[in-house]
Specification:
Layout (H helix, E strand, L loop, with lengths): L1 H6 L2 H11 L3 H21 L3 H28 L6 H15 L1
Helix pairs in contact: 2-5, 3-4, 4-5
Length: 97
């Protein structure tokens, strides 16, 4: 990701990171859909590994939604700088793993 920051002007980088935190509806839909799929897999499939992986993915989707909700207001501030954006992009990246 460092090569992206080196090529982009600071203002563009700040806008890109702020836009990551403006996707509440798609992220919520994805999280609810993932929950539904994980529950369906758990009920209809006797494969425990698949069930465990589904619920691990559901936890990751929940972490991403939580990070988005926690940092959403901060991302909309006009006084953001590159250091704040690096922290917020790291938070978003960890929630997306």
């Amino acid at each position: 990701m460092d090569w992206v920051k080196a090529r982009l002007p600071e203002g563009t980088y700040i806008e890109l990171v702020a836009s990551l935190f403006s996707t509440l509806l798609p992220t919520a839909i994805m999280t609810v859909s993932f929950l539904g799929a994980a529950l369906l897999i758990a009920v209809q499939t006797p494969d425990r590994l698949l069930t465990v992986l589904s619920f691990a993915g559901m936890l990751a989707a929940g972490a991403r939604l939580t990070a988005l909700l926690l940092y959403r207001k901060r991302a909309r501030l006009d006084a953001l700088d590159v250091a704040d954006d690096r922290q917020m992009s790291g938070t978003y990246r960890r929630g997306s793993l």
